[in-house]
Amino acid sequence: MKSKVYFGIISMLLTVGILSAEAETNSTPKQKNDTTSYTVLTAKVVDESTKKPIVFATVFKTGSSIGTVTNSDGEFELKIPGKSIEGTLSVTHLGYKNKVISVNDIVSKKATIALEVHAIPIEEVVIRDIDPEELLRQAILKKRENYSIFPEMQTAFYRETLKQNRNYVAISEAVLDIYNSGYRDNFDFDRVRIYKGRKSKDVKKMDTVLVKFQGGPRTAMFLDLVKNPGVILDPEIFPLYNFKLSGIVSVNDRNNYVVEFTPKRVVDYPLYEGKIYVDVESTAITSIDFHLSEKSLDQATKVLVKKKPVSMKMSVLSGNYLVKYREIEGQWVLNYVRSEVIFKSKWDKKLFKSNITAMFEMAVTDRDKENIDKFPYKVAVKYTDILSEKVLAFEDENYWGEYNTIKPDESIEVAIKKLNKKLIRNQ
To answer: I need a labelling partner for 38 at 20 to 30 A (CA). Which of 11, 239, 405, 414 fits?
Structure first.
């Protein structure tokens, strides 16, 4: 069925196998002239009242397409071209007032940016007569108005990690060149190319099991659910869900309807539940926060585990996803996607079992509408590609140069240092 295929596409696929002495082929990344000077801005974003970190907040140079997101500690690192410290930085997050801060204030000190909760005192009667399903249909019909129909080139940072229980066992990162075909109903597909990448692995901790992502950066693009509606935003699928309009919140200082959805019944492919945020003024879908329905976990296991040893049992414990869009010059563009799926694994006739957490995230950090490079499919990432087999081992701390990344949280930084030491000893 079409929807089942969609689910497999928008989710990471895992290949699980016994470790062997199989050699990995590392491709040499093509070189660009990375000589542009840049200023590095680092800060932490917190809730003004609770002082708790705000995760996945959008951070961008005001008036530009350059941006990133905060990590799980609320921290970010943003590189802006040139050595000038003029201008401002904008920080936005669901349910908070936008914050604009001088670039100079961040450069001159280790800044903490506090966001104020944006409470919307609005009576229930305002939204009582709005049909949430019809609201989503209108949002889909207005796709060509709210999202660009023209191609553009994008630069994105992509990271995928594997954890066994609490330990990181594999980390891969890449800067991507993306040909985004625009939001048109045609057969011109997005294309992703790896510009630069690196990896670090400690396979000894995987208990003789090698777990790999399949699809990686190409799969991340299919979490753009406005373009690839799949089993959530496809109107043909709506009869499978209950929709509820649960309120209004602020997103980027704009009022957004909150549409909650849950499956009506169990079907033969996985379904989800979560929240869809729709801009009140434009009827654009601005964010989707969703997870696998608990009743869909068995079906999800059949779709997500691509290959495994016969004597191993694997099951999906949870799957959580986040899609965020950002408004630039009156149109909404993909800003950030994240997928995290937790599997339980157990060998037959053994007491030992463990949880494997597979996560990927991608932030679009820059855009170019003028210099379109529709590179051929033969150099683009395929659904069957495994990123860790295509990139090099971790190198120096300045590996990424001027390119914006998602700042690793503290545990990942510690893991990278430990894994790098093992790589050095094994060379």
So the answer is: 414
**Quick one: tokens of 35?**
């000589």
- Give the H or E element holding residue 20: none
Task: Determine the Cα–Cα distance for residues 176 and 217; give it in Å rounded to an integer.
Answer: 8
- Sort 99 into a burial class: Cβ within 10 Å, 0-12 / 13-18 / 19+: buried
Give me the residues paired with residue 360 across strands.
160, 339
Residue with tokens 């692995």: 201
SS3 207: coil
Exposure on the CB side of residue 313, measured as CA atoms within 13 A? 10
The token pair that represents 31 in the structure block: 């070189």
pLDDT at 142: 95
Residue 94 scores a pLDDT above 60: yes
Task: Tell me how far apart the alpha carbons of residues 181 and 186 are, in angstroms, rounded to a whole number.
Answer: 9
Q: Do the beta carbons of residue 60 and residue 45 sit within 8 Å?
A: no
399 confidence band (pLDDT: 50, 70, 90): confident
Q: How far apart are CA 116 and CA 65, in angstroms?
A: 24
DSSP 117: B
The pair of structure tokens assigned to 171 is 């980390």
User: Helix, strand or coil for residue 102?
Assistant: strand
- According to the model, what pLDDT value does residue 414 have? 75
Q: What is the pTM of this model?
A: 0.84
Average pLDDT over residues 364-371: 93
In terms of Cα–Cα distance, which of 192, 167, 181, 163 is closest to 360? 163
CA-closest candidate to residue 184, choices 156, 155, 216, 152: 152
In this structure, are residues 217 and 189 in contact, taking their beta carbons and an 8 Å threshold? no
Q: What is the pLDDT of residues 212-267, one digit of tens each?
A: 666 678 888 889 999 998 889 999 999 999 999 988 888 888 899 999 999 998 78
Question: How far, in Å, CA of 238 to CA of 401, rounded?
Answer: 45
